[in-house]
From TrEMBL:
NCBIfam families: GGDEF, sensory_box
A Pfam short name: GGDEF
InterPro entries (UniProt xref): Biofilm_reg_signaling, EAL_dom, EAL_sf, GGDEF_dom, Nucleotide_cyclase, PAS, PAS-assoc_C, PAS-like_dom_sf
Protein name, as recorded: Diguanylate cyclase (GGDEF)-like protein/PAS domain S-box-containing protein
Organism of origin: Sphingobium subterraneum
Domain spans labelled EAL: 331-586
Source domain of life: Bacteria
Domain PAC, residue spans: 107-159
Source taxonomy: Bacteria, Pseudomonadati, Pseudomonadota, Alphaproteobacteria, Sphingomonadales
Length: 594
């Protein structure tokens, strides 16, 4: 038998027992005792585990079981036999009637509906009507089920699946559903809207230092503030420390105004267990349909804009522009090239000599990152700069350079070469490993390299980036063991003087941007002189970087600078070239062939 099912859901304002019952004669047992098919159906109704009733081809109810009483009510159920359902056309239950009557054309229909109990409680019901042929005649078997608990469970599961458990905001699934709805509506009406991705800048640090309960409290506070500040816009938590907003705003001015509201409420300090927590957020925005004609394209555009905001200046807004996509593609290419070079052993250190102005001799070297292309061409680190901003890849590259430098120093020592010292550039990624200083000292010890032969060069970004909480302890330990600490690119940061006071700095490296115009710019001349004097007064040595002309050399020497490095003396060379340089070098010879 073919079963053609129809499912209809609606809400009835009256219980099924509210039918206007018609007093029609009941088909008695004696009338049907000789009808074997009817007897079988009657037995089926009686034994059914569900509420069941049977109607004949005239739509009169001929029998029902006791399980119908909770559905129909005791009073109504006593009057049901003989009641003609087909004549019922009033009340909000007409849809049920029409669905059941439709079995004239089909074999089976199913209906879900809500009825109200005598106490006004909602009860979900499921009704299934099946037409059964018995020769020339036919009956309709009706099964009634109470599906209230199932419906309540489904509703609860739906709430859980679309609600973030920590913040109570809609979650990623709900956000996806909402953005899909808006994209669909926007394509019909040609209306625009925007998506904002909001990322908390220091959430991991809070989790790591104060615990996950503090992180959860912060997320709840962010959700509450965000919901309040952007209402009636749609806000959701996508996971981790990332939130998202959908807004009708679609112009640069409107997005900037909304972002200012978000910054204003989220940048205010939070309180957790009598501790004040500072929180900042970065925002990336994209607009439908110009930045993305589908939800996935809009997500990508917003994500690219967020990446740009965090890369340039955390705690800022970046609105998607087409050139950002090209920048991301370039960054992806750099990262791919760097990964290949690392795995194939084409990352290596080159060494640039540092000259002592007092002795006119090589005082030491700075190890600089270089990578060799498959063609053999040597490339500078700026060609893979995006890889050096990737925490895990930057750490792997730095570890490779340090390993190679220690191997080279070991070889020079075995040859008895007077290499002086070697400076190694350390990034924020290195300090993300709390055991970095111990591992470096262990490597030096295993290769019999005195700690005094190593300098660690850091820029001010390490005090502000990932792993900043480990910097003080690491530098203190290294300095205590004899490693010199150099502050690189001095004068280009925001808090250089405070860093001189807080950290064990032995050397100031004057950035090449000041040395370049030392003979033509009074301002640069004054800055270089000030740094040299500052170092002298603090008992800290100074190094001028990027010296390319004899005039620049003479200027920094006249100011009392201690060391210099640059193309005037020698470009960065391979380890084998360093060996040749040290073997050929004579005291008093200042300029080296390139």
């Amino acid at each position: 038998m073919l079963h053609n099912k129809h499912s209809v859901s609606f809400v009835a304002s009256e219980p099924l027992s509210s039918f206007e019952l018609q007093e029609t004669p009941c088909i008695s047992e004696t009338q049907t005792s000789g009808a074997s098919p009817f007897s079988l159906l009657e037995e089926l109704v009686r034994r059914s585990p569900h509420a069941a009733l049977l109607m004949d081809s005239s739509w009169r109810i001929v029998c029902f079981n006791d399980r119908c009483r909770p559905f129909l009510g005791a009073t109504a159920s006593s009057r049901l036999p003989g009641f003609s359902l087909k004549d019922q056309a009033s009340s909000d239950l007409t849809t049920v009637v029409q669905s059941m009557v439709s079995v004239d054309q089909s074999q089976q229909v199913e209906v879900e509906f809500v009825s109200l109990s005598g106490k006004g409680q909602k009860k979900w019901r499921e009704l299934e009507a099946t037409r059964i042929s018995t020769g020339l005649d036919w009956y309709v078997l009706v099964i009634l089920r109470d599906i209230t608990r199932r419906k309540e469970t489904e509703a609860r599961l739906r709430r859980q699946s679309f609600q973030d458990t920590i913040t109570g905001l809609p979650n990623r699934a709900a956000f996806q559903e909402e953005i899909d709805r808006r994209v669909k509506a926007g394509k019909k009406t040609e209306g625009g809207f925007s998506m904002l991705l909001c990322d908390l800048d220091n959430f991991k640090y809070i989790n790591d230092t104060l615990g996950h309960d503090a992180g959860d409290a912060l997320l709840r506070s962010v959700a509450e503030r965000l919901s309040t500040s952007i209402f009636p816009n749609f806000a959701a938590r996508l996971g981790g420390d990332e939130f998202a907003v959908l807004t009708a705003a679609n112009t640069k001015q409107e997005l900037e105004a909304l972002s200012r509201e978000i910054f204003a409420v989220l940048n205010q300090p939070f309180s957790f267990k009598n501790r004040t927590i500072s929180c900042h957020v970065s925002i990336g925005a994209a607009t439908f349909p110009q930045d993305g004609a589908s939800s996935s394209e809009l997500f990508k555009a917003s994500d690219i804009a967020l990446y740009d905001a965090k890369r340039l200046r955390r705690g800022s807004l970046s609105i998607f522009r087409s050139e950002l996509r090209r920048k991301l593609e370039l960054d992806a290419s750099m990262i791919s090239i760097a990964r290949a070079a690392l795995s194939e052993g084409r990352i290596e250190p080159y060494y640039q000599p540092k000259i002592c102005f007092r002795t006119n001799q090589v005082a030491g070297f700075e190890a600089l990152l270089r990578w060799r292309a498959a063609s053999g061409r040597i490339n500078a680190p700026d060609t893979i700069s995006a890889a050096l901003e990737d925490p895990s890849l930057a750490l792997a590259i730095s570890d490779c350079i340090i390993r190679r430098v220690i191997e080279d120093i070991g070889a020079w020592q075995r040859q008895g070469l007077p290499y002086g010292h070697v400076a190694i550039n350390i990034s924020a990624a290195d300090f993300s490993d709390s055991a970095f200083a111990e591992r470096l000292l262990d490597r030096l010890h295993q290769n019999a390299i005195p700690a005094s032969r190593i300098q660690v060069e850091v820029t001010e970004t390490v005090f502000l980036g990932r792993g900043a909480e480990n910097v003080d302890e690491a530098l203190t330990l290294l300095n205590k063991e004899g490693v010199s600490i150099a502050l690189d690119d001095f004068g280009t940061g925001y808090a250089s003087l405070s860093h001189l006071k807080q950290y064990p700095v032995d050397i100031l490296k004057i950035d090449r941007s000041f040395v370049k115009n030392i003979n033509t710019s009074p301002d640069d001349t004054a800055i270089v002189a000030a740094v040299v004097n500052l170092g002298r007064n603090l008992g800290v040595k100074s190094v001028a970087e990027g010296i390319e002309t004899r005039a620049q050399h003479d200027a920094v020497v006249a100011m009392g600078c201690d060391f210099g490095q640059g193309f005037l003396y020698a470009p960065a060379k391979t380890s084998s070239c360093v060996v040749s340089l040290l073997k050929q070098h004579h005291p008093g010879k200042l300029l080296f062939p390139s």
